[in-house]
Specification:
Helices cover 49% and strands 13% of the residues. It has 19 helices and 16 strands. The strands form 5 sheets. A 5-stranded parallel β-sheet has the order 2-1-3-4-5, sandwiched between helices. The protein has a 5-stranded parallel β-sheet with strand order 7-10-13-6-14. The longest helix has 37 residues. The N and C termini lie far apart (69 Å).
Amino acid sequence: MKILVVDDETAILETLAILFRGEGYDVTVADSGPKALAALEDEKPDIVLTDIRMPGAGGLDVLTQAREVDPEMPVILMTAQASLQSAVRAVNEGAYYYLQKPFANDELLAICKRAAEARELKVENKRLKKEISKRTLGDATRPIGAASRFTDVLELAETVAATDSTVLISGESGTGKEVVAKYIHGLSDRAEGPFLSINCGALPESLLESELFGHVKGSFTGAVKDKDGLLVAAAGGTFFLDEIGEMSPSTQVRLLRAIQEREVIPVGATKAVPVEVRIIAATNRDLEEEITRGAFRSDLYYRLNVIQLHLPPLRERPEDVPLLVTHFLDRLARTDGGRTVSLTDEALEVLSRYDWPGNVRELENALERAAVLCGGDVIGPEALPERVREAPRPRVVADPTPPNPTMEVVERAYIQWVLQAEGGNKTRAAEVLGIDPSTLYRKLNRYGIEE
């Protein structure tokens, strides 16, 4: 346990240093307030014991600085001239204890021991709350998917969550970019702060600038009072800019300045307002192509693209369809009065062979529609949207056979040949193929191979 002892009387300072070292403390001493302030930054003590009256910076100044360095750091104030005024101020500013000189060594050691225990308890409680929050968030909102291309992205997201680096999430519409942004926020040190978002393509330029940067009263028609922008309102948290590629060039310039300078100038104002927020942006466009076309600023792109996460479309991770189906049906049951809806094997096969151009969002909407239209507790193919039901079934072998078939075509044909040779017995077919039965079932769903 590290303790910083501060007193301008050398004899007292030396005596206290000997006392605490004898009790096993790691002791740092300072014979003035300014030296104590420097030691707070350099040594990061666990406890501070300081005299109140000292030339230069006094004990209350040390207390204020200690609270800024570490709000959990207990500060014990000593004084030979106690006054009600200084005691009240010490308590108001968060002093752990106010001790009048002279004091018994045993009394001082007992106070410091309690302070150390209180600090350890606070730090441990804070750590446990954060850990519980992370685990709960991970169980509840971790994006659903087991495909390696998707889990690799999640692992990178989990790694960068602990930093304040700007993140750019790319991917087609409906792949879950905002879900991943919220996941990053929930795992970060900013989890207790706000998560605010805006769709840059949903608002006209003038309104978007007002929402982002704020405005002052009278800056435009309808501005009847000052208003903070979302970048300011999200202080201490995360701000999510969805569809950043839709932002106009002039707004891009203002956003770039906000990121670089960590401040914004509200519409109609002349004075900058500081911004303390983590930014996560998302786009369904190829921003490098937009830069080539002159539609997106390269300097803003490089500011946003510190960490890039690319979410694969659902058609590239068909093995995740059954997992997502289960997740969405469970959620429907929680929001529909506990009504449980299941899916027939035929309906799951139809869902698994569809390409899902609208990705996860389209799948969720299709299931919600089917749950309403099925007229019972079981969803069959007939309850699914027509475009999903009539999706072309993947062919096992192309006709005519391509001169150089792909591995996918060869695998389809081989799986079907083994199944036919084993009379449709999937367990024996899996043994012949050298794969687990669960892997075989996924491949059958993926390729649309029927018994």
